[in-house]
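Hey, resending since the last one bounced:
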Amino acid sequence: MRSSPYQKDLINGEMMINLSVPARMVLASMPVLAVTAFPSVAAAAAPRTADLAFEWRPTVTDVSYVGGMGARAYVQAFATNVGTSAAPGVTFHFTPPPGATMDPAENEPFGWTCDTSDPVWACTNGRTVEAGAFEYLNLSVLLPAGTVGDTVAMRGSVSTTAAERSLRNNGGETTFRYVVPRPADIAVNSVSVVPSYQVKAGEQFDVYVELDNIGGSPADDVTVRVPLPPTVRPASLDPEYPGWSCAEADGAVTCARDSAYDISQPYNLLRLRLVAGPGTPDGPLVLTATAATTSPELSSENNVAQGGTVYLAEGVMSGHAWLDNDRDGLRDPDEPSAYGKVGKIEFVLEGTEPTWDVPRGYLDEQGTYSTRLKPGRYVANVYLMDGLPYEFTTPDAGDDALDSDVVGSTGGYYNRGWSAVVDVTDAGETVVDIGLAPVA
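The C-alpha cells again:
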C-alpha cells in the first residue's frame, strides 16, 4: 500500500492530522494569506447610549459690588449629546451663590420651566436632545452686593431620564467677580407722539418718552422735563407706568422717578397726555424731553430727544339757506329750506380769485351746510341754480341768527351772491346764512 502524504491518528479521542515531510515543504513554499477577524454577533449589537456633556459659556461675569441690577450676570448653560442615542427629559440644575436670585419667567417664552423654590434650581423644557445635537439655556443671575475683587461660584449640571455612557462630563462651575461699576448714564431713547400725523384743537394726544440707564451704576433723582407750547396743556398727569410721578410747573411737565433708577430698569416708559388749544400754530408740533440726574454720568449728550405731530388749525363755516316766501328778510319757522335751489358755495380768501380747488360747501336736505377751513378772512360766494325764479333776499334784516348774510349779487340768469368778509378762526365757527326770495 502506497504511503499517504498525511496520516490520521486518534489521540485522546480527537482526530489529529500529521503532515508528512514533503507536505510540510509544499505548504512552507506557499505565500502567506492574511486572515481577517470579523466581530462577533454580540460585539456588533453593543447598546447605544446617550452622553450629555455640560459646559458654561459665560457672557457677563463681572458684576457690580453695589448689587442691584448692576450685579446681574449673564451666562449660558450648554449641553451637547456626545453619545450615540437620544437624551430625553433634559434638565439643567444650578446651585447659585447664597443670596442670588433668578426670574423664572425670563425663559418661559423660550419653552423653559424653571423651579427656583429649592436651593438647587431646575430648568427643563420637555424636549429630547438627539445624538450629536445640543441644548442651551440663557440664564441671568442677580447677585447680592459684595466686595470688590471677591469671586463667587455657581455650579451647573445637566441630566437626562435615559441611561448615560458617562456622568463625569455632566457638570461644571463658573465664577462671578465683583468690580467697581461704570457710572450711570441716562439716555432718552425716543419721544413719540400718538397720533403722529394730525391733531386739532381740543383733541388729546399722548407723548411717550422712552429712556434707559445704559451705564453701570444706579442714577439718583432722575427727572424728565417736557416744556409745553403756550397753547398746550396737560389733560392728565398720570404717567401710566409705575415708578413715576408728574407735575406741571413753569410751563413744563416734569416727571420724577420715585426711587433710584437702576440699570436694566423695567418700566422705561412714561406717558404725558396733552391737549392742544385753539391758536396753536398750524404745522409741526414738536416736543422735547430732557432727562437729568444728580449722579455722575458717563455722558449727557444722550439726555435729550424730540418727537412730534402735526397740528391742523381750522375753523368751520356754516349756515342755513331758506326760501323767504314773505320777503321780510327773516327765516320763519314755516319757511322751507332752499335745498335744490343753491348749486354751490365757494369760500374765497380775501383779495384772491376763485380757483378750481377752492373750498366748497353744499346744502343738505335741511338746507344747512358746514365746511372746515383754514383760519383766515373769507368771502362766501353763493351760486343759484341757472334760471331760478328766486333772488337773494334783503340782508341783515334783524336778528343775526335769522336773517340773511348775502350782501350783494349779480342778479340775472346766472345769479351769484356774496357775503361780507368774515373771519374764520381756529376751532371757531362762522355763520353765513342765505335767504332766497321769490322774484317779484
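The helical segments are 21-28, 41-44.

Sorry for the duplicate.
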